[in-house]
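Example record

One chain of 428 residues, shown exactly as stored in the release files.
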Amino acid sequence: MKYNIMIGIAFLVCLFIFLPTVHADDGKMYKVDTETIELMDAPSQDATILGELKKDYKVTIFENSNGWGKTFYNGEQAWIDLHHLSAMDDKQTEQENKQQDTEEQQDETAAAEETNTASTQSAENGQLYRVEAPAVNVRNAPDKNAAIVTQLNNGEKITIFEESYGWGKTYVNNEEGWIALYLLDKDNESAVNNDGSEANETSNSLETEEEIENEESVVTLEQTDDESETEDVESEEDKQEVEAEQSSGNPLSGRHFVIDPGHGGKDPGAVGSEIYEKTLALSTAKKLGDQLRHQGASVTFTREDDTYLSLGERVNISNAANPDAFISLHYNSSEDQDANGVETYYKNESGSQMLAQSVQTSLMNHINLHDRGAKQADFQVLKDNQQTAILIELGFISNLEEQQVIQTDNYQNQASEGIIAGLEDYFS
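Predicted C-alpha cells for this chain:
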C-alpha cells in the first residue's frame, strides 16, 4: 500500500515537471466564430469586461482553464470563452499569414498609386464641373481660410469626387484640393478626356494679373504691361467694393445665397392630407434657386433631394459657404385647423431682422395669404448661423383650404418672386 502511494506521488510530480507549459512563443491561434466576443479580466462570466473582438478576428491563446482561454489585451491579461472560438491548425495559420502579407502589399501598392490615378478617374467616380466665376481658389481643405493650392480660371473644368458642406474635393497636380461648389456649374461632358488631362487642367497664366479675393471667389482684373506682381486683398472693405461693382444694375448680381429646404428624408415635417412639408419645401427651394440664378446670384442648397440633414449640418453648410444670406423654407402646421398665413423669423441680430421684415413685406405684395408678420426666434438654424439668416413659413398645411393653394406651382413661383423682391430691396 505504501509502495503504491509513493508511486502515485512520483507520477504526479513527474506529470507536473514534464507537463508542457505554454509560453508566449508557442501559443495556439484561434478565430472568433460569433459576431462579437467579450474579453474578461478573469475566467468568469461575472468578471469585468475589458473589450470585445469581432467575428473572424484571430487571437492567440496561451493557456486553457475550464473552458476559458488566456490571452493579452492592451498589455493586460485577458480571458475569452473558448466556446466562441475555433482552433486553427498550423497550415491555416500559415495561409492566413501569407494572405495578410499579400493584402498589406496590395494596400501599400494601392496607396502609392492612389495619388497618381485619382486625377484620371472616370465620370463614373466623379462629376465634371466648369468654373463659373472669373477665377477661383483651390484650397487644401474645405475651409475658406485654408492654404491655396492653385487657382482656376473661368471656363476651366475640374472633376469633383466628394462633396462636404458646400465644398467639392478634387485632385490637382497629384494633390488633394477643395473648391467652393457655388463657384462651379455641372458640365454634361465626360469627366475626363482619353488621356485624363481635361478634367484637372489648370492654368499658371495668372502671373500677369492682379487679384481681389472675395472670400472663396477671386475677381481678376487685367494689369498694364508694367504691372507684374500679384496682390491678394481680403479685407472686408475690399469685399464691399467688389460686391458694389458686381451689383451694378442688379442688387443680387454676384451675391451668394444658401437655400435650406426644411426637413427631408426620414423627417417629413408637417404632414397634410395630401402632401409632406419636406416635399413642398424642396419644390419651392428649387424655384427660388432658379430665379436667384436668373438674377445673377449663385446658390448653395443644403439639400437637393429627399435627404435627411440634421440642424447642425445645415448650419455647418451655411457657415462654410459664408453666403450673403441664409434662407430656410418651411410650411406650417397647427392643431387649430383654422390657423393660416405666412410669417418670417429672424435671429436676434439687426441685419437679419431688417432682411426678414423686407422679405415679409414683399411676400405680402405677391401672394394672397394672411400676414403673420416678421418675428424673432431662437431656431437652431438661425441662432447658430454666423450669417444673416431668416426662416420663412410659407403657409399652413394643416389648413385644408390653404393646403390646396400652397402646393400649386403658381403659388410657389409667386412666393419665390416675393422673396426675390424682398432680397432686392434689402441689398439695394
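Notes: The chain has nine helices and 24 strands.
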